[in-house]
Write a structure and sequence with these properties.
14 strands, 13 helices, 3-stranded antiparallel sheet, 7-stranded mixed sheet, alpha/beta, binds pyridoxal-5'-phosphate
């Protein structure tokens, strides 16, 4: 089975991990800060806080921005459940903004309408989490303007989008958000096995996330309640977690990061080849907005019943039967049983629901071979014939 995504590990990656295994520190050593600096530099942000998953990064970002049980968090239905769950960890209420039918990212016009309505009802969100779906940057500047107007905070879920940019502004620069998070799960663009990171330009948010990552503990005398009696002293100032990334993971990240640009160029080339191979087929292919440089984490197509009599589920089944490990990104979050309990139902977010019914994710990763891609296109063409 050709998977829809796969990590790429080189001998240099393996050596970097072995070097840490042979060193003094497997965790809380020098490599995590190295990785943090490298990611911050890459995306032109001031600070970075590496953690054990993007889910943890989202949780810490929500906490640092003060999200609590009386607050509301908005995200898009067309994402992985973690984009909403982070709000639930803080006890907040979740609501969603529908997506745009062309980019499949948050619809800025839907957001504007929903904000005006929420203001009237006194139900404005404290935090909005836009998601850079499939690696394509969201319209962050427009979203930021609405954040200024309506007074909410922004966490960019850039799990799909490390290395992407919009009008040459790297995703993660946080020019138009408070915090951006990335995922390093093996299906994502670069990996640390499991891992994630939060970047920000706000020193207090960075410090707070870093403290929460490690039990809410500080060793900085200037933050302690009284002068420390000795070097063993630390103060727990609040309830934190153990969300730390290990140096073993960070070493893999540092090594992978060196190939990021190449990896994205390869992804772009594969996506462009799909565009050519599939251009005669009755499907909707990805549309990248002018000025956007997508990281192409995913290559998603949509089967519109107005264009083809073949159902998504049938075509999906045929591809899987022929060894093509297609997937669906995403079944809308609001239709998950956990969220239906709070009252969400089919019909709430029609564009996300259409997407969830029509989307198929084709295999895309740097090591995908041309012959494999040809075969995938051939099988798809036959399934749609
Ligand atoms: C993968 C993913 C996450 C969660 O990442 P983990 O590192 O696995 O916790 C969150 N949001 C989106 C959009 C993702 O694709």
């Amino acid at each position: 089975m050709i998977p829809y995504g796969r990590q790429h590990i080189t001998p240099a990656d393996i050596q970097a991990v072995v070097d840490v295994l042979n060193s003094d520190f497997l965790t809380q050593g020098p490599v995590v800060p190295q990785f943090e600096q490298a990611v911050a530099k890459l995306c032109h942000a001031q600070y970075a806080c590496a953690v054990n998953s993007a889910t943890s990064a989202l949780h810490l970002a929500c906490l640092a921005l003060g999200l609590g049980p009386n607050d509301i968090l908005w995200t898009v239905p067309n994402s992985f459940v973690a984009s909403a769950n982070c709000g639930r960890y803080c006890g907040a209420q979740i609501d969603f903004v529908d997506i745009d039918p062309i980019t499949w990212n948050l619809s800025v016009s839907a957001l504007r309408i929903k904000l005006a309505q929420a203001k009237k009802e006194n139900k404005l969100p404290k935090i909005l989490i836009p998601v850079h779906f499939a690696g394509q940057p969201t319209e962050q500047q427009a979203i930021w303007q609405l954040a200024q107007e309506f007074g909410f905070k922004i966490i960019e879920d850039a799990s799909h989008a490390i290395g992407a940019s919009r009008h040459n502004e790297p995703v993660g620069s946080c020019r138009w958000s408070h915090i951006t998070i990335f995922s390093f799960h093996p299906v994502k663009i670069i990996t640390t096995g499991e891992g994630g990171i939060a970047v920000t330009n706000d020193p207090e948010l960075a410090q707070h996330m870093t403290r929460l990552r490690s039990h809410g503990i500080t060793r900085d005398p200037s933050h302690m309640q009284r002068a420390p009696e000795g070097p063993w002293c630390y103060d727990q100032l609040e309830l934190g977690f153990n969300y730390r990334m290990t140096d073993i993971q960070a070493a893999l990240g540092v090594s992978q990061l060196k190939r990021l640009n190449t990896a994205i160029e390869q992804r772009q080339a594969i996506a462009e080849r799909y565009n050519q191979l599939l251009k005669e087929l009755p499907i909707q292919r990805p549309t990248i907005l002018p000025g956007n440089y997508s990281a192409f984490h995913l290559y998603v197509i949509r089967l519109d019943p107005m264009q083809t009599p073949h159902s998504r589920n049938d075509v999906f089944k045929i591809l899987r039967e022929h060894g093509v490990g297609v997937n669906v990104h995403y079944t809308p979050i609001h239709l998950q049983p956990y969220y239906r309990v709070s009252g969400f139902a089919t019909g709430n977010f029609p564009e996300s629901e259409r997407h969830g019914e029509q989307a198929i994710t084709l295999p895309l990763y740097p090591q995908l071979e041309i012959e494999q891609q040809n075969r995938i296109a051939q099988i798809l063409a036959e399934a749609l014939d």
